[in-house]
Amino acid sequence: MAKRIGLFICWCGSNIGGVVDVPRVVEETKNYPGVAFATDYKYMCSEPGQNLIISKVKEHNLDRVVVASCTPMLHEPTFRKAIARAGLNPYMFDMANIREQCSWVHSNDKEAATQKAIALVKRALAKVSQVEPLFESSIPITKKALVVGAGIAGIQVALDIADSGHEVILLERESTIGGNMVKLDKTFPTMDCSACISTPKMVQAAQHPNITIMTYAELVDVQGYIGNFEITIKQKARYVDHTICTGCGLCTEKCPTKVLSSFELGMGKRKAIYIEFPQAVPNKPVIDPDNCRYLKNGKCGICKKLCPVGAVDFEQKDELIEEKVGAIVIATGYDLIKWEEIYGEYGYGRFKDVITGLQFERLVNASGPTNGLIQRPSDGKEPKTVVFIKCVGSRDEAKAKEYCSRACCMYTAKHAHQVIEKIEGGHAYIFYMDVRTPGKAYDEFYRRTVDEGAQYIRGRVSKIYQSGDKLVVMGADTLLGSAVHIEADLVVLATAMVPTEGSEKIAQLAGVNIDKDGFFIEAHPKLRPVETMTGGVFLAGACQGPKDIPDTVSQASGAAAKVAALLSNEEMATDPMICHIDEKMCSGCLVCKEVCPYKAISEKTITERIAGQPVERMVASVNTGLCQGCGNCTVACRAGAANLKGYTNLQLLSEVDALCR
Amino acid sequence: MMNLTKQIREQAKKLLEEKKVDLVIGFGQGTELARTTPVFIDSPEGVSALTWGPFCANNLAKYLVDYKNAPGNVAIVVKGCDSRSVIRLLDDNQISRDKIVVIGVPCAGQLEWQKVADEVKPDATLKETVDNGDSFVVKTSTGDHTFNKKDYMLHRCLVCENPNPVIADFTIGEELPVKNYAERFAEVEELEQLGLEEKSAYWDKQFSRCLRCYACRNVCSVCTCELCVFDQMKPMWVSKRTNLSENTVFHITRAFHVAGRCVDCGECDRVCPMDIPIRKLNQKIHKDLKDLFDSPTPGSKEGLLSALGEFSLGDPEEFM
């Protein structure tokens, strides 16, 4: 049957019509083979415009439609719905962008813009001549979410999803949830105690009927696709049976082995059987197998002897747990950059009294190793002069990261304020490049610190060296144009946030891209900031880029809303514009499988009749749930057996031919 | 070389007698003195048709694809270069390892049959060939001829990477040393020195001669599509017309379809009836892959991903 194309060209008011000679475009294209009807209209996207399309489809028995107007990003869905209302398959449609690509960019050359519009319309006509109806299919959704990482981002995501009535697995590799936020002392700009606002959230998560917390556990495999992920979690051996442990703490008290605590960032000690901090959730101990005397040498076992309920179990093994979820939220957070490996000018970590901002948080924290007294690590003396250095690793293209870590300006102002407030006769000097305070009540907070007497010096530090019990900080004051020497008792570095160790592996498992610095890449930096290019995988918090707590929590709630929306459906429609393998053309080389970023291609055996005989052979097969229609396979397939529906080789070549004529 | 021929025959006979394979693919004496023909032997009595010497230039590996779906196992006689094709076919899932038996023969190089044919009498029959290191002595019914390798050998053999097969279930004869592999890109480097227009003129001259006989494709051991793009009608990627424009598209497309998988066996060059230096195109890609990604020659190791058949999240996208 002959094709009956309807061509509708839009003026977009004067947006297109003011530059492109629209009636001439109609005139030059209406005789293109297959065009059964062609017209122009002031605003095709308007209600009357859409009704025009619908009535003409019916009146002229059109079987496919081209609209020449603005970008398909804007109105392709509008017009697809319109022709569907007219009774056509919504994919029997193509758009020519004669606004952004013609009238807007060639506004000073009307003739050229018109010529280009004619060419683009012909291209769309060539394409639409080759289109075929496509059909959405639906897949069921597992109404459960996985949240990877239980810092403040992960906890917030889990709580919000759980509150919307869906089950959540909150996964954490450490022995307690809480992440970095629970290590902090006060939080800017309101100075509320970090533990006081975050530990209730931890408890809330633990008590929520819809949340299953899995601590000391790691994600090891992800299979499947949006709505239907099959995940494998490795529960690391805790050597303590948490189902019977009461958390009495006798074991941790009597354990004879003391090691540096990673929770205290190496400034305090813990036992080999330990609970990270008093408000930990779950508040039950684990045994560190690298330091436990019994697990290393088979001697000791005091904890086992003392445990009143017999919860210590040295025979416990790592366990693999399989779960099904419909959505995954990555909230793996940040680490601080390993400045000791980069900055020789600050002593490569040789000087005990050069610490990071996070270590300072522990020093000033009432539940920290010094019970909140600011005592320097070398001799426990109270420092009088404290130097803060900002942008250590951030905004340093030459040695570390180009980006700004965003939270440092504010927490450094907070630290300086705490030095002045808590230390009698305390002085705070801050070396900075710029002070960035774009947040609600942030600049006011910074101003207050300056007014209190914190001395901001605009310049970088070139060297720190030990002189007696002082650290001499040599820097430059670029505003005064002079060198600065400060004899400091303590130096605090505002080190860059970097993606947490192991986030690359999570990216690989979940099929999500990471940027050059290792942060997860969102689907769109402005309009889809919590989604990823992989359907059903979302992002929250500093794993996507450096963030402070308010931004992290907002983003977490955003991600949770996306997950809740997804899980509120029983099933979901799949995009029909995905890969299709022509099995008779496929030679089974599976190069498509290698290049597929979504693991959507696998092999399958088909039976063919060759010379009258049934022959079994292997070909590629596409999982329609996993395929995102990226087209990598269609490029890699030499024979053209892999084709992207809606953008087939035939369709693309027709377009090229039309443009080259 | 008589000795090697004898050993190949014995090995083939043993495999057929013990029913390890149903077929042996090897080289047999051709109708002319300096040419061989592929032979397909299915009984122990037939092995006397097998031969070996400096006239076994054909890469027989592609014949394996014909037996991909056939019942039974196949043994194949390969040189070093051919063995890379075997690995590539395995990596492209075109044959399965348990279906084939590879009889590898270390190869001292192959002579250009045309040059040899020019010097021996047309009615001469071959008695024996002897490898003297720098030359081959070809003993015929009408007298002996010495052909020094430098002047009479195929260029690809002069710069051979793998005189010894990289995959073999049985190896016949002694392993041989690698000689001038380092000079393999000399011709490409020479071409690289030309200016853009000179290069274009050079290739125009070559491609305009192309008959589109597709011998280069048909012989190529990595051209294993079920339906080649040049044979497809819908879409018609390349027109059937023979002119410079379509010929150029054909050659460039072919070069990219084998890019990262071409094992540099040089058969395309050898079979071209118009002497188009097709291998130079492939070699330019080989050189670029080597320079940019330090890629080894495809097929030289098992399990290598092809340069255009790999997706890595860590790939820098500097061009985007």
SSE topology sketch:
The complex is a heterodimer of chains A (661) and B (320).
Chain A (H helix, E strand, L loop, with lengths): L4 E6 L3 H4 L4 H8 L5 E7 L5 H13 L4 E6 L2 H14 L7 E5 L1 H5 L6 H21 L6 E4 L3 E5 L3 H12 L3 E5 L14 E2 L4 E2 H14 L3 E4 L2 E9 L2 E8 L14 H5 L3 E3 L8 E3 L1 E2 L11 E2 L5 H5 L4 H5 L12 E7 L1 E4 L3 E3 L17 E3 H8 L20 E8 L15 H15 L4 E6 L9 H10 L3 E4 L2 E7 L2 E8 L4 E7 L1 E6 L1 E3 L3 H8 L26 E3 L9 H19 L3 E4 L4 E3 L9 H5 L5 E10 L2 E10 L9 H5 L5 E3 L4 H12 L1
Parallel strand pairs in A: 1-2, 1-3, 3-4, 6-7, 6-18, 7-10, 18-29, 20-27, 21-22, 21-27, 22-23
Antiparallel strand pairs in A: 5-30, 8-9, 11-12, 12-17, 13-14, 15-16, 19-28, 24-25, 25-26, 31-34, 32-33
Helix pairs in contact in A: 2-6, 3-4, 6-19, 7-8, 7-16, 12-13, 13-14
Chain B lengths: L1 H16 L5 E7 L6 E6 L21 H4 L7 E5 L1 H12 L8 E5 L8 H7 L6 E6 L3 E6 L2 E6 H4 L2 H4 L11 E2 L14 H7 L3 H12 L7 H5 L24 H15 L8 H5 L6 H16 L27
Parallel strand pairs in B: 1-3, 3-4, 4-8
Antiparallel strand pairs in B: 1-2, 5-6, 6-7
Helix pairs in contact in B: 10-12
Describe the structure.
The complex is a heterodimer of chains A (661) and B (320). Chain A has 661 residues and is α/β, with parallel strands linked by helices. Chain A has four domains: 5-130, Rossmann fold (3-Layer(aba) Sandwich), CATH 3.40.50; 144-332 and 538-567, FAD/NAD(P)-binding domain (3-Layer(bba) Sandwich); 334-498, FAD/NAD(P)-binding domain (3-Layer(bba) Sandwich), CATH 3.50.50; 579-645, Alpha-Beta Plaits, CATH 3.30.70.3270. Helices cover 28% and strands 26% of the residues of chain A. Chain A has a five-stranded parallel beta sheet. In chain A, strands 20-27-21-22-23 form a five-stranded parallel beta sheet. In chain A, strands 2-1-3-4 form a four-stranded parallel beta sheet, sandwiched between helices. In chain A, helix 2 crosses helix 6 and helix 13 runs parallel beside helix 14 (442-451). The model of chain B has no long low-confidence stretch (mean pLDDT 93). Chain B has two domains: 2-110 and 161-171, no CATH class; 185-293, no CATH class. The termini of chain B are far apart. The longest helix of chain B has 16 residues, at 2-17. Chain B has helices at residues 2-17, 63-66, 80-91, 113-119, 149-152, 155-158, 186-192, 196-207, 215-219, 244-258, 267-271, 278-293; strands at 23-29, 36-41, 74-78, 100-104, 126-131, 135-140, 143-148, 170-171. The chains are: A alpha/beta (661), B alpha/beta (320). The A-B interface holds A 507-508, 513-514, 516, 584-591, 594-597, 610, 615-618, 632, 636, 638-641, 649-650, 653-654 and B 68-69, 92-94, 224-229, 232, 234-237, 257, 305-306, 308-311, 313, 316.
